[in-house]
Amino acid sequence: MTPSFSLAVTGSGGAGVMTAGQLLLDAAALAGRYGLMARSFGPQIRGGEAAALLRLADRPVESPDDRYDLLVALDWGNIERFADELPLAADALVVADPGHGAVPAVIAAQTGRLIEVPLTALAREIPGGRPNMVALGLTACLAGLPAAAVETRVRRALARHGTDSVTAAIACLDAGRQAAAAHRRARLPVSGDESTADPTTALDRWVLNGNEATGFGALAAGVRFCAAYPITPATEILEWLAGRLPSVGGRLVQAEDELASINMCIGAAYGGVPALTATSGPGLSLMIESLGLAVAAEIPLVVANVMRGGPSTGIPTKSEQTDLNIAVYGLHGEAPHVVVAPTGIADCAPTAAWAVTLAEALQTPVILLSDQALGQTRTIADPPATALPAARRTAFVPGPTDPPTAYRRYAHTPDGVSPMSCPGMPGGQYTADGLTHTTSGVPSTRAEDHVGQLDKRRRKLEHHDYGARWGEVHGDGALAIITWGSATHPAREACDRAAADGLSVRLIALRLLSPLPVAQLEAALAGVRACMIVEHSHTGQFYRHLRAWAELPRPTLAWHRPGPLPLRPGEILEALHHLQAQQEVAA
Amino acid sequence: MTPSFSLAVTGSGGAGVMTAGQLLLDAAALAGRYGLMARSFGPQIRGGEAAALLRLADRPVESPDDRYDLLVALDWGNIERFADELPLAADALVVADPGHGAVPAVIAAQTGRLIEVPLTALAREIPGGRPNMVALGLTACLAGLPAAAVETRVRRALARHGTDSVTAAIACLDAGRQAAAAHRRARLPVSGDESTADPTTALDRWVLNGNEATGFGALAAGVRFCAAYPITPATEILEWLAGRLPSVGGRLVQAEDELASINMCIGAAYGGVPALTATSGPGLSLMIESLGLAVAAEIPLVVANVMRGGPSTGIPTKSEQTDLNIAVYGLHGEAPHVVVAPTGIADCAPTAAWAVTLAEALQTPVILLSDQALGQTRTIADPPATALPAARRTAFVPGPTDPPTAYRRYAHTPDGVSPMSCPGMPGGQYTADGLTHTTSGVPSTRAEDHVGQLDKRRRKLEHHDYGARWGEVHGDGALAIITWGSATHPAREACDRAAADGLSVRLIALRLLSPLPVAQLEAALAGVRACMIVEHSHTGQFYRHLRAWAELPRPTLAWHRPGPLPLRPGEILEALHHLQAQQEVAA
Amino acid sequence: MNATVVLRPKDYKSATKPVWCPGCGDFGVLNALTKALAGLALAPERVAVVSGIGCSSRLPAYTSVYGFHGVHGRALPVATGLAVARPDLTVIATGGDGDGFSIGGNHFLHACRRNARLTYLVMDNAVYGMTKGQASPTSAADWAGSKLTPDGPGIAPFRPLEIALSAGAGFIARGFSGDPNGLARLLAEAIEYPGFAFLQVLSPCITYRPEQLEYKALVSAGFEPLADRNAAFRRLLTDDGFTTGLLYRAPVSAGGSAPAPADLTDETATLAELAGEFTAARLRGAADHES
Amino acid sequence: MNATVVLRPKDYKSATKPVWCPGCGDFGVLNALTKALAGLALAPERVAVVSGIGCSSRLPAYTSVYGFHGVHGRALPVATGLAVARPDLTVIATGGDGDGFSIGGNHFLHACRRNARLTYLVMDNAVYGMTKGQASPTSAADWAGSKLTPDGPGIAPFRPLEIALSAGAGFIARGFSGDPNGLARLLAEAIEYPGFAFLQVLSPCITYRPEQLEYKALVSAGFEPLADRNAAFRRLLTDDGFTTGLLYRAPVSAGGSAPAPADLTDETATLAELAGEFTAARLRGAADHES
Amino acid sequence: MSPEVHAGASVALFLAHAVTLEEEAAERYDELADTMAVHHNDVEALFRRMAGYSRLHRDEALGRAQAEGDVLPTLRPWEFAWPSPESPESAALADTHYLMDAHQALSLALTAERQAQAFYQQVADTSHDARVRELAGEFAEEEAEHARLLEEWLTRHPPSAAAALDDLDPPVAVD
Ligand SMILES: Cc1ncc(C[n+]2csc(CCOP(=O)(O)OP(=O)(O)O)c2C)c(N)n1
Ligand SMILES: Cc1ncc(C[n+]2csc(CCOP(=O)(O)OP(=O)(O)O)c2C)c(N)n1
Ligand code: SF4
Ligand code: SF4
Ligand SMILES: [Mg+2]
Ligand SMILES: [Mg+2]
Q: Fewer C-beta neighbours within 10 Å, C or N terminus of chain E?
C-alpha cells in the first residue's frame, strides 16, 4: 500500500484554484514525488466553481484515494456541487478563509479539524499578491513539499510575467507557509523524506495527462495524419497533435464533423499515411458507418475514443466506461475490428502506439478506449521503460513478371493479411470497396466471395499474435478481479490493500478488449475460485462482454457503478470482502 | 411437414420473369393455396438476370425449401450467378427453351429430367404474345394450379392494357399449358386437390411482403409521421407509407439523409405524433447518435431496420441477421432501449404494431429488426387473427392546483414511465434534454441525478409486462432450437421434419431481443438438455447475446452461417441430427 | 394559460439561470426572443424552441416555452419534424455557428430548400465557445486563436446569408445581440413568415473572441427588405458581414411550397380499407385497386 | 509503369464491365474521364478516383487508376484526406447528385471552402438511380415520378453552381455527358486547377428519367470563363441550368489557401525532443519550452 | 428616442416609456444579479439592490399614470422610441465580467442612470406637451439624484488593487 496524501483546493472559478493545483503537482514532481491531479468544475465555461484534486505519494500512483486528507477552500462558492466528489477523512484538515463566511455544513459535518487562515487578507498585504499563491504556499507546506521545489516552479512559471509578479508570488508562498507553520499542530503526517528523492531520475519523469500521452504514443508509432472535430474530453489529443504533427511532416485537418473526420482518415490511410482521429461517444456514434467501411475495405486507422458520462450528451466532463458496447459491437453487419484500452494514464502512450501498430499490421480500424479520468488527469509517472512500438504495414511488392492487372488486393493469405498497395505504386491499382467483393476488389454477391472475405477478415484478427500486451496479471490469489481501463488502478490498489489485510487477490486487467483474448484470459484465471468484474458502468457492459465469450469462474460477481464519481479503491475492497465472505459461507 | 412444390423461373431481366412469378403466386392465392415468392437479381439496375423463386403449398409456408422441383428458364443469361441459389432436387424438372442454347452444365449436372419447350417460338406464333406468359401457363399447369385462377389473375392484371393484350396473354397461357400437357409424363406430383380450397376464406387471405406488412402494422398502431431516406431493402416500407399516410392525416418527409430522418421523427414524436423511420444497416449506423438522444430525452419512436448482407455496403439485395449487435449494443453510454423482431413475413404487421405500442408506452426508441428475406419476400398468409395493438402514451395531465412550473417531465415513478406532455398542453412546458438532467429536465452533473435517471430508464424497460408476444414456443422436446427473425420458419420446418423422423425438438423463437426476456426464455427451456442457436450470421451474434444474459443448457451448439444464401430447413435439420448424435455419445 | 393575461417578456423566461459567461452576446438574444414572443402575444405552450449543442444551444432551458435540447448539429431536422407534424405550433430552431454551419451544414442547406414553417436563429460568434474556442466556419482564415489551428483555419469563411439565398430560403435577415429591440422585431417578422425564416445574429463570445466587443461599432442597419432574389444577391455582393436588417423576404408563393399541414384527424381511408389492399380478393377485383 | 509509353484513353479503363443501363449518361462521363487522363498523360498509378454510393459512384472500378468506392455521401472527405496526406497525387472525387448534394451536402459546402487540391465531378441525373428512382435534390419540385413523393418533392431544387460559388469554390463548371470531348477538356482543366475544382455533369438516367434524353437539345455551351466572383454570381442569375462550360476560375491566390503540402520526410523535431516536453526537468527549465 | 416622436408624445405615451424604462432596468439588474450568483460574485447583492430601486421607480411612474387617469398604451418591445438599442436605464450586458468588482458594477449602474437622466432631460427639453415636460423634468431630476448617490458609493469602492479582471483560471470545455 502506497502511503500518500490527498488534498483538494477549491474555490470559485477565476480564483486560481487550477493554477495552484497544477503548480503544486509540478513542484511535487520537482521534489521527486509521484502524484496525480484531477479537475472538477461546474457547467460554466469560465468562472463558476472549481476544484483541483490531488494525491501525492513516494511511489507511482494513479488511483484517487478514498478520502481527502486536506481541503483548502479559497471560498465556498457552490461547494455543495463538489460535496460527493470530496469525501473527507475523519481526521481531515480543512483550511478556510474566514473572510468567505462560515464553513458549510456539508464540510463541517465530516471533520472537526478546521483552521481559519485569512488567505485573501494575507494576499492583500502583499503588493500584487494573490490568495491562490498564499494557498499554494500553505498547502505545499502542509503536504510536506520542500519550499525550494515550489519556489523553483513558481519562478519558472511566472518568469514571463516579469520580476514584480515573481516577487509578489514568492512573498505569497512565504505568507502561506508561515500560516501553515502557525498551525504547526495541524500539520499533517507526510510520508517520505524530503531529501531522499534522486533528483536526476525525478527530473526525467513525465508530467502529463493521458490525452497528451495518447497523442505522443500515436505520433511515436508513426501517425502522420489526423482529421478531427473537437469534443470534450478528447480535444487535448488533437490540440497536442496539431502543435506537433507539422514538426514531423504530418498534418492535422479540422473537419466539418465526425463523418468527415473519419473519412478523411480513411483517405489518408488508403494513401499509405498512418492516421488517427480522436473523439468521444457522440462523435464515435457518427463514425460507426465509416468504421464498417474501413473494416470491409481493410483500411488501417485508429480512433481514440475518450469516454465520458453517457448516454447521449450525458456528462461531458466526467468519466465512465460505457462506450465499450458501441466500440466492440456497434458496427452493422459482421465487422471484426480491434478494441484496446490503456490500463492507466502513463499506459496511454504505449497503448496508443500499440493501437497504431495493430491497425497497420492488421489493416483494420482500431478503437482505443480511453476515458475522461485517464485523459484529463495529470500525473507524474516514470517514462516508458521500453521504446514504443512502431507501425509497419505489409506492403504490396509487384512481382517482376506480374501483368499490371494481377494484383489481388484482398487475396486470401494464411494469416488473412493481404499485401496492401497505395497510390503511387505502379501495378498496385485496385478499387477499395465496401461492397462485398472478390479478392481483386470487384463487387460480388456470390456466397464464396462473401464468406471468403468474412473468413479472411476474421482470421487476421484471430490469428494475430498479440503478445504480452493483451493484459496485465498481478498476483496469484484464488480470488480474482478482472477489470480494464481507468478501473485498473483503483482495483489494483484494492488488491494491494486486501493483501495487506491478508487476502490475496489476483488482478487481471485487459488491454485487448476485442477480439477478447479468451485463451490468455482463461489461462490467467487458472486456479481462480471466485471472480469479480470491476468496471465504471451502470449495467456491467464489460461483464456481459466477458460472459459472451469466455468461461468465467463460478461464482463471478459483477461489480460496477456509473459515473460521475470516480471509482475508489475502498469501495472495490469492500466488494472484495463481500465476495470473500460469500465464498466462506459457501465453503 | 408441409407437402409443397418449389419452382424457379429465370431469365434475363426484361424477359418478364418477375411478372410471371408474381402472377403465379397471385393465381395460387386465388386458387386457395399458400406460398411465397422471393426474387433474385444481378447487380444491374435493369436488364441483367433475374429469378423468381416460388414455393407453393396447401398450408401456410414461409420458409424456402431445400431444393427446387421445377426450373423454367426463359433463357440462360448468367445462370451461373444463381447456381448456388438454385439447388435442384435430384428429380427436378428443367424446362428450357431450345432457342437459347444448350442447358448449362451447372444445371444439367443436377438432374436428368430436362425437357425442351420453345417458349419464344410459341409466343411468336401469337400476335402480341410473350414468352413469359407462355412460361406462366406452362409453369402453372406443372404446378397443378387451376387454369381458371391463372386466367382470372392475368385478365385482371392486364385489364388496363386493353383487350388485345389480354387476348394475347390468354392465348399464351393456353399455349404454355398445352406444352406442359404435351409433357404430361413430366408433370410433377402436386399436393392438394384443386377444388378443395374454400374460396371465401382464400379471398380474405393476404398477399403481401414483409415491408408492406411492416408499414401497415405501424400505421394501424398509430404511426402518423415518417421521415426517411431511401435504402434497399427498406424502401418499400416508405413507399407504402408515402401512399397511405396522407389518407389517415399523416405525413411523410423525404429527408436529406438518415441523420435528418431520425431527428425529424424525434421532433414529430416530441410533438405527440407517433413516428417511424425505416432503413437498413448503413442508415441505422448514421442514426445511432440520435437514438441515444431519444433514449436520454425519452422520446418514443420506431426504427424499422431491414437487414441486408454486411458489413458496410455489403450485399444490399441479400438477407442476413447481422445488425443484431448494433441494434442491441450500438449506442454509446448506457442507453437501454427495445429491440424486437418479427418471426416471419406475416408476423411483420403485428410485430410492427407492437413495436409502436412499446415505443409509446415506454417512451423510448424501439428498433424493429426485419430483414431482406422477410421484407422482400411476398407471401400468401392468413390475416392476423386478432386486431393489431394500438399505441397509447402516458400523457401529462396538469393538476388543478399545480403551479405552472410544477411539471417534472422526468419524475421518478414506480414503473419508470413519467407522464409526458407535448407542445400545446398548458403547464406541460419543459426542455427535453440529452444531457444528464434532473427530474425537471434541467442539466445536472450530480451523481444522484445521473444514477436516478439511469435507474429509471432501465426500470421502465425491465418492469414492463411484455405479455405473450415476447416469443413463440413450439413443442416440448428435450432438444431445443432458439432462434429469431427470418431464421424462425426454416428452423420450425427443420423441427417439423425432425418430428417426422421421430426426434422431438422444441422451438423457441424470440420476438423480444432486448431487453432479453431471460425469465421467459429460461422457463421455456425448462427440461431442455441440449440446445442449438440458429441464426443467419457469420459469427453467431445472437448466440453471444444469449450467452451474455441467460444461462443456456450445456451443451449449446451455435449454428450459424452468413448470407447471401437463405437459410434452408435441411441444413438446420442436419445440424440437429449432429447435435443429437453428440448427445447420444455423451449419454 | 389564460389568453387574456398579458404576458411580459420575463414571463417567457424560466427559473433556470444561464451558465453563460457574463457579457456573452447570447443574453441579448434571449432577451430579444422573449420580447418577440411577448410582442406577438404567443401562448408559451404553443411555442417550441429547439436547439443542438453549444453555449448558444443552451437557450431553450432558459425559456418558459417548450424546449428541446438535442444533439450537436441536428436542431433543424428536429424542428422540421415538429413543425411538419404539428403545424399549429410556433417552432423556432436555434444554436451556434458551429452547430448550424459546421456539423449541421447539410440540414441548413436542405431546410432552406424545404421551406417548412419555422424560424432558424443562429447565434454567430465565429467560434466554438463550448469546446474552448476552436475556429468555426465563420472564423476568419487568419484567426489563430485556437491550438487546433495554430496558424488559423486558413480557409474561406462561410457566408451564411449567401448560402441561405443560394439554397432557396425565402426570409433572410441579420441581427445583432447588442440591439435586443431591433432583434426582437426581426424575430417577430421571422416568426410570422409563413415558411422557413433564417436569421443570423452576431452574438459576441467575450471569452474566446473578446475582440468581438467591437461589433457594436461595426454593425449598421443597412439592409432594406428586398422581395427579388436577384436583387438580394446583388445586395450581398457588397455586404461586409456587419450590415443588419431584413435582407430578403420572398413573396410567400415564391418561397417554395411549404408542406401542407397534416390534418391528423381527417382519416379518409380506414384501416380496414388499407388492409383490403392486401387481400387475395383484390387480385381479381375492381380495377381501381390495381397498383 | 514506364513513363515513355503513351497511354490511350482505353488504357485508363479496367476489365470490369459497367453494370450501368445501356444508354446511361455515365458511360459518357467514364469516356470523358479516360480521355482527360490520357490527354494529361497522367500515370495511372498516380491518379485516384474516389466515390460514394450510387450508379454513378460505381465509376472507379471501371478505371485502371487507383479507386476508392466508399459509403454513401462521403467521397469528398475521403478524397480530401487523401489529397492532403498525399499532395503528390491527382485526386478526383465523383458520384451522383444524391450522394453529393443530399447526404453529402455538408462535405460539398466545406470542400468548396477548404480548397484542397482535388476535382469533384458530380454526375447529375436529378434522381436516385440506384435505389429505384426517388427524387434527388436537383429534381424539379413537381417531378412526380417516385412513389416516395407521389406528388413531387414539392421543394425548390438544389442549385449546385450557386451553392459552390457561395461556399467559396474557385473553379466551377458544368458539362454534359453527351459531349465527352468537351467534357474531357473541362475535366483536364479542373484537374490542373491548383485547388478545389467542381464540375457538375448533366448525365441522363434513361431508366428513371427517360425524358432526360432531351438534354441533348437543351444544353448549350454558353459559359465564358470568368475570374471575378461577383461577375460569376451575376452570370448565374440568368442561368437556365443547361448552360455548359467553365463558369468561374478564381485566380489561384484568391481561391482560399489550399493546405500546404505535408512533407512527410522532413522531421524537424525528433521524437526525443517531443518526449522532452513531458519531463519534470522542463518544469524548472529553459523558458522556450513553456507552453 | 427620436426627438420628433417624443416631442409629440402624449402624457400616456411618455409614462408608458417611463414605466418600461424602469421595469426593464429592474429586470436587467436582476439578470445581472442572477449571472453573478452563478459565478459566486458578491456584486450580486449590489445588483439586487439596484433592481429594487428601479422597481420602486416603476411603481412611482405607475402611480403617476393612475394619478393622471391615463390608460397606458400597450406597445410592443420594438415600438418604443428609445434613443439607444435598449431602454436607456438598462445596464449594458456587454460591459459585465464574471470577476467584476463593486467598483465596476457601480460604474455600470452609473452609466445606466446617467443615460436615463439624459433621456428624461431631452424629453423635458423638447416635448410640446407641458405636462410631459414637467413630468420628464421631475424624473430627470430623480435620475440625477441616483447618479449622485452612485458617485458617492463609488468613492467608497475604489477599483481593486490587483487587476481584478486578470483571470487566474483558464476557461474550461464543458462539452
Ligand atoms: C457529435 C458531437 N461532436 C462534437 C461535440 C462537441 N461540441 C459541443 S458544442 C460544440 C461546438 C459549439 O459551437 P457553436 O455551435 O458555435 O456554439 P457556441 O458554443 O459557440 O455557442 C462542439 C464541437 C458534440 N457535442 N457532439
Ligand atoms: C447511408 C446510406 N443511405 C442510403 C443508401 C442507399 N442509396 C444507395 S445509392 C443512393 C442514391 C444514389 O443517388 P445518386 O447519388 O444520385 O446516384 P445515381 O444512382 O443517381 O447515379 C441511395 C439513397 C446507402 N447506400 N447508404
Ligand atoms: S464561452 Fe463565449 S459563447 Fe460561451 S458563454 Fe462564454 S462568452 Fe458565451
Ligand atoms: S438507373 Fe439510371 S443512373 Fe442508374 S445505370 Fe441506369 S440509367 Fe444510369
Ligand atoms: Mg459559436
Ligand atoms: Mg443521381
A: N
What residues pair up with A556 in beta bridges, in sequence order?
Answer: A531
Assigned superfamily of B207-380 = Thiamin diphosphate (ThDP)-binding fold, Pyr/PP domains (3.40.50.970)
**Assigned domain for E167 exists:** no
Average pLDDT of chain E, as a whole number: 90
Q: How many residues does chain C have?
A: 291
For ligand 3, is residue C131 a contact (CB within 6 Å)? no
Q: Which CATH architecture has domain A467-586?
A: 3-Layer(aba) Sandwich (3.40)
Q: Kindly report, residue by residue over E58-117, the tens digit of the pLDDT.
A: 999 999 988 888 889 989 999 999 999 999 999 999 999 999 999 999 999 999 999 999
Intra-chain end-to-end CA distance of chain E, in Å: 42
The pTM is what?
0.97
From the CB of C72, is ligand 1 less than 6 Å away?
yes
What secondary structure does DSSP assign to D210-276, as a single string? GGGGGHHHH-B-----B--HHHHHHHHTT--S-B-EEEEE--GGGS--PPPPP-TT---S-HHHHHH
Question: How many Å apart are CA B66 and CA B57, to the nearest integer?
Answer: 14
Which site among C49, C51, C74, C115 would you substitute to test the B interface, given the most B Cβ atoms closer than 10 Å to its Cβ?
A: C74
Interface D:E, ≥3 CB–CB pairs < 8 Å: no
Domain extent for C208 = 9-259
Beta bridge partners of residue D226, listed in sequence order = D248
As for the ipTM of the complex, it is: 0.97
Q: How many helices and strands, by DSSP H and E, does chain C display? A: 9, 9
Substitution site in C57, C58, C99, C138 for ligand 1 pocket (most atoms within 8 Å of beta carbon): C99
How many CB atoms are closer than 10 A to CB B570?
A: 16
pLDDT per residue as tens digits for the range C265-285: 445 568 889 999 999 999 987
CATH 3.40.50.970 in chain B: give the residue spans.
207-380
Residue E136 domain-assigned? Answer: yes
Any idea what the CATH number is for the domain that residue C69 is in?
A: 3.40.50.970
Q: What is the C-alpha separation between C213 and C210, in angstroms, rounded? A: 6
CATH code assigned at E89: 1.20.1260.10
Number of the ligand 1 atom closest to the C-alpha atom of C203: 21
pLDDT of residue B38 exceeding 70, the answer is yes
The pLDDT, as a whole number, for residue B199 is 67
Kindly list the protein residues whose Cβ atom lies closer than 6 A to any atom of ligand 2: B 229-231, 258, 282-283, 286, 313; D 53-56, 72, 95-99, 123, 125, 127-131, 136
Residues 6+ apart with CB under 8 A from A561: A536, A537, A538, A567, A571, B451
* H/E stretch holding C1: none
pLDDT less than 50: residues of chain C: 1-3, 254-266, 287-291
Number of domains within chain E: 1
Using most ligand atoms within 8 A of CB, pick from A44, A45, A46, A229 the residue to mutate for ligand 1: A229
Instruction: Give the Cα separation of A249 and A224 in Å (integer).
Output: 7
Domain that holds residue E7: 3-156
Ligand 1 atom closest to the Cα of residue C124 is 16
Chain E residues whose CB is inside 8 A of the C10 CB are: 27
Ligand 2 atom at minimum distance from D26 CA: 21
> What is the per-residue pLDDT across D187-210, written as a single tens digit (0 to 9) for each?
999 999 999 999 999 999 999 999
pLDDT of amino acid E160:
77
- Count: domains in chain C: 1
Given a cut of 60, whether residue D267 has pLDDT beyond it is: no
Dist. CA A571–CA D251, nearest whole Å: 67
Nine-digit cell string for D247: 463558369
- Is B186 a residue whose pLDDT tops 70? no
CATH topology assigned to domain A4-198? Pyruvate-ferredoxin Oxidoreductase; domain 3 (3.40.920)
